[in-house]
Specification:
The protein is α+β, with helices and mostly antiparallel strands and 69 residues long. It is built from one helix and two strands; from the N terminus they run ββα.
């Protein structure tokens, strides 16, 4: 078998509704910041569910601390 095969495609195909952003910021002569971000609708839903769970837990802790003993 030949081991010199190279595949340039990712292992899993990208989501068809994926959005990408790229930032290049130059600070002075010698410093450059390069950043990228990507998100999918499923990722936004997952972040919303996670945030809701955290806020619900915090609300329960606040309520438990406020009740008189």
């Amino acid at each position: 078998m030949s081991e010199d095969l190279q595949i340039d495609e990712p292992a899993t195909p990208y989501h068809p509704e994926e959005m990408k952003a790229v930032w290049d910021v130059r600070l002075g002569k010698n410093m450059t910041i390069h950043a990228t971000a990507r998100w999918t609708p499923a990722g936004v839903v997952a972040a919303g569910v996670t945030a809701s769970a955290v806020l619900l837990a915090v609300a329960a802790l606040v309520r438990a601390c406020r009740t008189p003993r």
